[in-house]
Design a protein that fits this description.
273 residues, 8 strands
Length: 273
């Protein structure tokens, strides 16, 4: 998918937009040898960049950044409008241990390894449930969440074409003690850009440790890990303005449906009392 995309688009100029000076500096070092492409670096929020620059693009990438923007749906609409006809957006989401342990290849694992990975998955499930407050209770900080659902509906309507490619790799084995120590004493930024304190993370680690009834059995055991990213290509089949308009309508429809569902659940819970 990515290879076919790269062969169909000739890139001579790239606008790189981010608010993090260190990331931009790191990026400049990595691309310093690419003389055939001119990179323009912009340290500014994406919305402000769109206000100041009116260019249209063949390709726009946004890897693991949309969840940091509370009004992500508005940014996606503006991003679509800034594409040329038949332009593409590249997105990425986690598909490895961080999000979906059960879909990782596991044919070569022993029963003990599978058991350890189940506990490992419980750690991430508990972490995302307690710490990873999703945007509007719909957008996860480890996958595309609601955005993926919107894009699939736009594909059904013929407004866009979707393709994805999964890339997997093995990561270093780790013990549960090492995993927990990674989080103890560290701050954790989540989808709403809220920063949880060191104490709250330490408390979470203690609660998780208490929940594992067979903790003595897993202490010191190495957990096989599998990481992966899914890269999505979204190609416009209609004009950018039409696709952006439909995106907004589908977003509002899904959010309204979700809110009605939540309200109904609340009424049922209230009746129970």
């Amino acid at each position: 998918m990515i290879q076919s995309l790269s062969s169909s688009i000739s890139i001579s100029m790239v606008d790189v937009v981010d608010i993090n000076a260190q990331l931009l500096e790191h990026f400049e070092k990595k691309v310093s040898g690419l003389e055939a492409v001119h990179f323009c670096i912009h340290q500014t929020p994406l919305e402000k960049f769109f206000q100041q620059h009116k260019e249209r693009y063949d390709l726009i990438t946004a890897f693991f950044v949309l969840y940091l923007i509370p009004s992500w749906h508005e940014i996606v609409e503006k991003t679509i409008i800034r594409l040329k006809n038949n332009g593409c957006i590249l997105l990425a989401e986690e598909i490895g241990d961080f999000r979906a342990v059960k879909i990782c290849p596991s044919e070569s694992q022993t029963e003990e390894e599978k058991s350890l990975r189940e506990i490992y998955k419980r750690f991430w499930d508990n972490l995302t449930e307690e710490m990873g407050a999703p945007l509007y209770s719909l957008q996860s900080f480890s996958d595309l969440g609601l955005l993926r659902d919107i894009l699939r509906l736009l594909e059904i309507g013929g407004f866009v074409s979707l393709e994805y490619e999964d890339i997997w790799w093995k990561n270093n084995e780790i013990t549960f003690e090492e995993l927990i120590e990674i989080f103890r004493g560290k701050n954790l930024a989540t989808a709403t850009v809220a920063v949880y304190s060191k104490n709250s993370i330490q408390e979470f680690c203690k609660r998780f440790q208490d929940r594992v009834c067979d903790w003595d059995r897993v202490k010191g055991k190495k957990i096989p890990r599998k990481e992966g990213h899914r890269f999505w290509t979204i190609r416009l089949n209609e004009s950018p303005e039409v696709v952006a308009e439909q995106f907004g309508k589908v977003y509002k429809g899904l959010v309204t449906e979700f809110e009605i569902h939540q309200s109904a659940l609340g009424e049922i819970a209230a009746e129970g009392f």
